[in-house]
Structures
1.
Amino acid sequence: MAVSINSVPGTDQLPVVVIGAGPVGLAAAAHLVERGIEPLVLEAGPSAGTAVRDWAHVRLFSPWSEITDPAAEKLLAPTGWTRPDGSAYPTGGDWAEHYLQPLADVLGDKIRYGATVVGVARAGRDRIVDSGRDEQPFTVHIQQADGREERISARAVIDASGTWSTPGPMGADGLPALGEKSAAGHISYRVPDLGDPAVRARYAGKRTAVVGSGASAFTALAQLADLAGDEPGTHAVWILRRGVTGSTFGGGEADQLPARGALGLRAKAAVEAGHAGTATGFRTQAVERDGDRLVLVDDNGRRLDPVDEVIVLTGFRPDLSFLSEIRLGLDERLQAPTALAPLIDPNVHSCGTVYPHGVNELSHPEQGVYLTGMKSYGRAPTFLAMTGYEQVRSITAAIAGDREAAERVELTLPETGVCGGAGLFDEPDAAQNVEGGGCCAAPATLQIGVGAPASTGGC
């Protein structure tokens, strides 16, 4: 696919709208500034890295050296900012405090907080209309925190909104299980912060089902095992759609991300110590009430013993609702850009390398709109922070009309990649919705990641 460059006459003075002030969105803004192009970052939350702050208690699998963007560092340097120790592993809170927020502060009024994007379209054209379409700027519809609506014109749109706001449900068919919604008060879709007294009390001395098969599930199992040591009666039941094999707990000591491998071993130890049981071959179909407790039922009618709480870690998916009037080219399975999907499809890849990619793989039939970061991966379970930074470097070069730079690869990735279906994900936006053949000896290097609570040093 040729490089798609937005060169609509008369739009050069309009900003490029970036949706989301997370790691990749802020990197996109930094690259635009470097190119002399005005960005406008729209962030629904009250601060930079709002989603990252939601998992502030979790430590990344990746060190500082791999989670900062070069163009962003150039913006930060004149402020006296110094990159933290490159070999250290930050928590989500560290990342937000020591990198994301300082970068956002440098960008200043180029970021608007409390601005939720509710629609993107071509000015005066719905998705059906061909006539004059490519000659029109984009209109970005936003709703402000106080409820006021606004329309912003843009020369291009970079959607780096991630997938954090749309976790996968418990139901094995990708839809909520029967009774799942009505039981919402006892169900969480996030790795719990057991350092919070209120959260700790929710699980202490309780029986909790953990649904999911990857690093986020490992984290929850390890945390609950630690809690069981302090709070008698605390027990986990690990719900797996397939059986337990030698690869269920990840790559272990062979994992090229040692902290991630150690996390899988901690989950294995929790099971072996009896702090967590397993329910294998269990594809949840319904959630029933048993007094104040819940009973999970699978598609064969098997019923588990009642539990007090359920932690669902079955993946995240992109919110495409506000892009309904944009002509996107998306893979029918992954909801990722058509040209990118074959490179990241967990149904096909088993430790294959996902090579660096950019505007060619991320372009759509609608010129000038791009899904980047975790959102570009749709429902695929792996993502590399450095890949996201390379994506926006290439895209901003294309927007600037620098075709050579847009098509040039400026990133060398580790020789790791998608790891066949085990769901060892490093970003909470990409938790486990694929349960399958397990991980091979050198699992994917996935850089933005949750895996362990801050107190453990994992992830």
2.
Amino acid sequence: MVESADSTTGLAGVAAAAKQAPGRGLPPVHLWHPAHCGDIDIVIRRDGLWMHEGSPIGRAELVRLFSTVLRKDADGYVLVTPGEKLSITVEDLPFRAVSVARRGDTLVFTTDVGDEAGAGAEHPIRVDTDPETGEPAPSVHVRADLWARIARPVFYELVEMAEVEDGRLTVRSGGVAFPLGPVGAGVE
């Protein structure tokens, strides 16, 4: 992590603000509306790896910390504190859903930063088509306007759980039916 001369700005300020959240709870980023301070050289790559100035952020705890102050605004993804808003680059979606478990009637996804999202009306599953490959590009809503790309092995688990309804593979979670795709369209 790069240290700045002023520990209340840049990465140090973001880390300090994130640490103020009690336990593993999330800071109230939706209540923070500071002026935009510029860009910070953080990239969340398509594969989920967080990079700073071209190097991987190797500490999972630090990535988790930064993920708690991540927000998507109309102008893009930002890390936000009560005093700063810094734009970052997200190549695809900010999180990866790396596992799924059924708890009662709900499919609970765990992301690469430790968040959990129980699929249902508030956390839908959607399956778009990757414009480059034509393959399914599944995702699940995590919080606010932040989504997780469902990892391929997890998507295969969903396909195994699916039932055919009206010619489509469909999973149910939290009382909601989520179509994964038409039978025979590469999702079987």
3.
Amino acid sequence: MKEAEKGRLGGEVPVGALLISQSNEVLARDHNRCISRNDPTAHAEILVIRHAAKLLENYRLNGMSMVVTIEPCPMCMGAIINARLDMLVFGAFDPKGGAAGSAYNLSDDGSLNHRLRVVPGIMEKECRELMQDFFRERR
């Protein structure tokens, strides 16, 4: 939530993400930076994956977990799957574009070579309200 708030204060869509190691160490944390970087791929999930992969000098992040405020989009789920994360924990569902059970379910797609455990609904109300408030303010 703190990372999402940082993004909101910077005018970004308030999504925050953490990448956590098997020993419960936070390896990376970030928020959306698409607007500030003029980069449509600068979602919080992508940024933490990039940071951790560089830190560990490995594109495979086996055994790690991601915690994110909003259900990831298809691009981010693709990155999460390709990074071989073990678990995804998220707050609010994104019924219009979520790819971990809402609009799509890439996390359990039998045609892909990796599946991960998904734990939805953690601090769901707070995460949903943060997004709703952000878009209400923008209108």
4.
Amino acid sequence: MHCPFCRHPDSRVVDSRTSDDGLSIRRRRQCPECGGRFSTIETASLNVIKRSGVIEPFSREKVISGVRKACQGRPVTEADLAVLAQAVEEYVRQTGASQIDTNDIGLAILGPLRDLDEVAYLRFASVYQAFESLEDFEASIDQLRADHAKDRE
């Protein structure tokens, strides 16, 4: 790591701490040349392979913006969306893959969104799973009802 003050090509780590719920490490560094101190944040890279083949870094903000559309007019707060995005990222990172398809991210969103708000879940699923008819909605609603019946038992 180059020193941001004198551009010396080396630095030593003075202190390390996990941050952001354990998903990154904050390191306090010191330059042996000028003595300047600075911080770095290290995260494991996670890339998303889009349908077009383009590869880009995973973004919680993109998860939030996609789910926010399904949650319009629903009693879902920004904090709820942030927790959902964090859960999705944790699930995706647990796979151990450094690259993941957008399709897999969509699947990872469905579970937490269903727990958060069933109407938003149906909206998201209808677009994500390409519902083509009323029967698709009915099948999804029937599945929700069956799951509710299991929960009551």
